[in-house]
Structure formats: C-alpha cells, structure tokens
Amino acid sequence: MKKMITAIAAAAAMILSACAAAESGEEPDSEEGLPNILTDILATGHDTTVSADYSSLSREKRGYGQGVQLDRFNRPAGALEFNDAYGKYNAKAIDDTTDKTLTLTFDQGYENGYTAKILDTLRSRNVKATFFVLKDYAERNPELVRRMIEEGHRIGNHSVSHKSMPTLSALECREEIMGLHKYMKDTFGYEMTEFRPPMGEYSELSLAVTRDCGYKTILWSYAYADWDVNAQPEPQAALKKLTGALHSGAIYLLHSVSSTNAEILGDLIDSAKEQGYTFL
C-alpha cells in the first residue's frame, strides 16, 4: 500500500508538471499518456512503480533462444544462462528443478481452428497449460478464452499489440502489459500474472518494467519450427523432436495455429507421462 501511495503521488506530480509545461507553451518532459497513469493505478490496484528510475538499465534489444548446448540433464544452456542473468527481474526460461516436470505453453497470436481440439486433448489427459493471448485474440475469441479459464488453464499476457518490448519506452511497455491486464480483468474477471514478451525480445529495462507491473516473465526452454501454417513439420518427426528434448524443469513453447501440434499433442503428453514427467 505504501508503494502504491508513493506511485500515485509521483504520478500526480508528473501530471501537474506536464500541465504546467503545457500552459507555459513548453514541451513537457513527461511522455504522452501520463494523464492515464493515475486512472490505471486506481483501476487495477497494481503498484506499477511509475516513479521508478530505470536510467541505469540497458535498453539493448536481446532476442532469446534456448540454443543447442545441453547439460547432463538435457537442459539447454541458453535457458539456464537466462535464468542466471535475469532471475533478479522475476524472469525465467526454465524451472529451477532437477525433477521431471513439463509446462506446456501456447502462444495465441490468432485463431486457426485448432485450439478447441488442443483443449479437448488437454482435458482428456487431465493436463493444464498456459495460453499466452494477445488482446486482439481475446476480443475475437471470447468463447475459447472462457473455456480456457473454466477448464483450469492459466491465461498469460502476450501484450496488447505484439510490439517488440525493448523498442518501447518504460511507459509504453507498461501500457502494453497493463492494457491487456485491465481488459482481461474487466471482461473475464481473470487477473493474469505471467507475461511472455513478443518474439522473445527483451531488454533489462523491459524486464524491470514487467516485474514492476506485478508480473513474471516466462520464456521457454524448448521451441521448434511450428508456427508457419504453410510449412508444417511432419507429425512423427515433430513428435520425435519434442519427446527427445524433454528435460527437467522444461517449459515448452508451442503455437496453437499448428495443425501438427494439434495432431500430436496427445502422443506427446502420453510419452512424457510414460517417461515419468509431471505436468505443471
């Protein structure tokens, strides 16, 4: 509460400063959109720390990839290195465990007719997943989003408009996250806590802003080329890749637009369970 009061006071001060500058004919130092900050804080109840000083943080754009080097637990070195470097921002690409765990995540850029089948498979196997949605997806597919929620899946935040987070200002990053957060809370009564940056692109600043919005950044420890609907991988070859990449603490990124994923998902789950994996 103390932090929220501080944030509100800082936002109010920034708004007054911007108004004074406007009246004097000067260009305000604050960024466009500041008058919305106070309303957003009060509406969401989040301490978004709008007064935070991000000046010491790097804005360099980084693109995530798990890489091909593996440790003795079959875990990708890139995922482990990401955790080590950015865990302080409440960000991870792999779960910190040597237990056989697997988290299935799906990025929901647009609907291609396979999500219902994916949900059917998850329900039949009693497995939960995380669906990272864009605002446009939630607006266009409310019945699928409601089904995800009703069947106990996690809904993740994939931003309002799929912009590269490290190319945005701190305020713009916040608006991309909290704009969808407010929509989901208002429309579905659901409060999201996990964010996946579009394209897996991030900077120290964008990760810090995400943390200060009350979110965890969730990347992935394994992904494969499944997103091109016009060049879908052959199902058995894809299944072999996915099962062969299993590792402790695994977080898999899959795309629900993939016909291959919809076809092989049940076999992937069955194979992982046979190998002793628990789904988170």
Describe how the helices and strands are arranged.
Blueprint: H1 2-23, H2 35-44, E1 62-63, H3 77-86, E2 91-92, E3 101-108, H4 115-125, E4 130-133, H5 135-140, H6 142-150, E5 154-157, H7 170-188, E6 194-195, E7 201-202, H8 204-212, E8 216-218, E9 222-223, H9 235-244, E10 250-255, H10 259-274, E11 278-279
Parallel strand pairs: 2-8, 3-4, 3-10, 3-11, 4-5, 6-8, 9-10
Antiparallel strand pairs: 1-7
Q: What CATH architecture label of the largest domain applies? A: Alpha-Beta Barrel
State the CATH class of the largest domain: Alpha Beta
Number of domains: 2
Which value, in Å, is the CA radius of gyration?
Answer: 20 Å
Describe this protein's structure:
With 280 residues, this protein is of the alpha/beta class. It has ten helices and eleven strands. It folds into two domains: 1-51; 62-279, TIM Barrel (Alpha-Beta Barrel), CATH 3.20.20.370. The strands form three sheets. Strands 3, 4, 5, 9, 10 and 11 form a six-stranded parallel β-sheet that branches. Helix 1 (2-23) packs antiparallel against helix 2. The radius of gyration is 20 Å and the shape is globular.
